[in-house]
Fold:
Amino acid sequence: MNAADIAGYTYQADVYCPDCISQQVNGAAQRFGTVPGPVAWETTEEYLARIANMMGIDPEQEETYDSDDFPKVVFVDQCCDGGEHTECGRCGEDLLGHDPEGDAADRAVEAYQDRRAEYAEERFKREAFGGIDRRYEL
Structure:
């Protein structure tokens, strides 16, 4: 990890890892209407940008909003081993041991495998039933 890598986020008086912050923000953002959760291949940063846009917040200008309203980035160089705020307030994972890019890649692979399985099932149905979906016949 580089000093400028994102280790987590500070939000509503706690610190969260990249996996947990999406869940925390999603609940708070519901007051702005129905908010779809993060898509499997969407990174935490992409999801937060989408929510920030909906809330009228510019996440690049952290001085213009409070961390009670929207998460602020915690970089690796802002964490210290054994320090008070190095663990996620939700899952308890050490922020310095977290690999957000690896997690996003794992989610993308899972989403791809799910789509591939759905495609294979649809293909089987087309071949087995000659393109007719027999589930809806009486």
Remarks:
- The chain has a mean pLDDT of 76.
- The beta strands are 6-11, 14-16, 72-75.
- The longest strand covers residues 6-11.
- Residues 6-121 form one domain.
